[in-house]
Design brief:
Number of strands: 50
Strand content: over 45%
Number of helices: 0
Largest sheet: 6 strands, antiparallel
Structural class: mainly beta
Distance between the termini: 26 Å
Amino acid sequence: MRFARSPLLAGLIMLAACGCGEVKHVPGKQCAIDLRIHTPPDQDTWEGVASLRVTIEIPGTESLVSIVDVSSAELVLGGSPASSVVLTIEGLGLDGQTVISSGRSPPFELSEGDPAELEVLFARKGEFTKLGDLGHARFAHAAAALPDGRVLFFGGASEGERGSPKNFRPPEIYDPALQTSCAADDAGCPDFPEADRRVGHTLTATPQGRVLVFGGENEQGSLVEPILLFDPATSTFRELGNYDPADVESRTKHAAVLFSLRDGAEGRDTILVAGGEIGPNGQRSLTASALLFDVLAETFTRTDLSLVHPRHDFSLTSFGPGRHDVLAAGGLSANGLLDSCELFDGTVFSNITPSGEHARGGLLTPRIDHVAIGTDDGVLIIGGDNSFQSIDAPEIYLADAEAGSGFFVLDTGEEPAGHEARRGLVAARLPNADILYAAGEAYDGFEDTLLSSAELAHIDQEALSASFSATNALGRQIAFASVSLLTTGGLLIAGGFVNSADGPCASAEVWYYNP
């Protein structure tokens, strides 16, 4: 592995040679990796880094690990050609143990012949940092992480308020490593018809890398009928046509989630779409209808499903590995906020029957604009708006836990100074199972305040408690941004609202958090 400084990138360019089988420097008998490391412009990722730990993970074999000095000239690791290889580089402190900065590649092919060309973002651990902007400022958009580490941004508007968006935006693809986004006419930017710009839609990524675009409404307020499938390999959208439009109603403010549908002893990748609003502009009504989309067959296999309660602006969340359930929580009915929640078992939606002394069949605090995060044993509900003010009010749904089954309110104990309840927040489960709880909007019933503060929430399921601790702030007051968990392990936060001299406005800013 050869190292060379790159002033342009303020980082390193590395050429890693990986001998295929035995380590031999024979032309045509080596696997090679061209690794270009990119660093955030406002972050000194090399401060305190004394050495680098380079790990090459090859499926089915023991990982190749080497500790090298930053000034080393070459490193050769023995290995074999393989698919789905992942390279991680970690900057270690003087003690040789503390990881100060890190970066990780998306899965790639390691083979003889041409080198594998990798672009890796190298950032400090546990910190937010600003990257290059999106091509378009936008809010009310959706985002989907792609297998190659990039992110598809679809829909949204650059002007207006949450309830009255204007100037709808085209899709774009953002590369966190290069910190650039394609503009409408750039190579690699998806070609897209103007009539299909929308808000109120969903974007659902599949394990195969494709992305389903469903529902929404256009700038004239009409529901958008075309259902699209995006293929990142060709950067193109394809309109689906192998279904009966009478059975698959166009809708907005619905929810969608990828889950594993029981199929014998194994699961089958399926997208569940449910709820929302249907009907012509000005005559909208709530719907309880739900649909199943088979990812491999690329068609709808069930169109006769129904929620127990029609609702919109709610969450659908799948459970951890080994389970095939989906939880519908929160949202609005025709009569206001819903506390009732439902489980979908692959066949039917049903109300939750609680068991256990403190278990409930629904939310103690009904809400919208919340975050629902799947855990190993259930789903955490946190943050949002109860129609009067912002809340955190963490609650967790547990299935077959020692305390019982159903919803449990989590005791938050003493909260850190400056703790803020928030809606439109940034939240995600980190590798250590803690929850990042950041940014968003504090609303006290009278005024809105955008936030930049961040906290970590530790959930103790056995004790039914949640403890908050302050951590590094985001660096910008921002709310209702999209949050994407990248295949490289980091979080990409983009768009939403930021403050300006004229009040909150659509943002083109992109922020990155390295867990």
